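G., the chain you wanted modeled:
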Amino acid sequence: QVQLVESGGGLVQTGGSLRLSCAASGITFSVAAIGWFRQAPGQQRELVAVIGNRGSTIYADSVKARFTISRDNAEKSAHLQMNSLKPEDTAVYYCAAGSWTEVVGRRGFWGQGTQVTVSS
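Predicted structure as C-alpha cells:
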C-alpha cells in the first residue's frame, strides 16, 4: 500500500520561507519521480515541481528561482524548499509519486496535502 505523507505547511508572512516534506512508503522510492502540486480554493490543481529518479527537475514558471525540490532516497523522502513566499502561493500542497509520465500527467499516487498560507 502506497502512502505519501506531507508535512511542513503552515502560516508565514510574505517573503518568508517554508520547507515541505513528503515521506513515502510502499513504493520503490529510488525509481519513482516525485512531484509537488498545489490547489488554491476554486482553482485547478497545478504542478509546482517534479524531480525524476536521476535528479532531473522541472518547475512552474511562477516558482522558478524561489522554490527548490530535492529528494533523499535513503530516507524515502522529498522536500520542497519555498523561499520569498507570496500571498499567491497560498494553497494546499500535495505530494505525488509514480513514473515521470504518471506524475506529470497527474496519474500517480497522492498524499493528503498540507496547507500553506502566506499572509500579506
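Residues 33 and 52 are 4 Å apart (CA to CA).

Shout if anything looks off.
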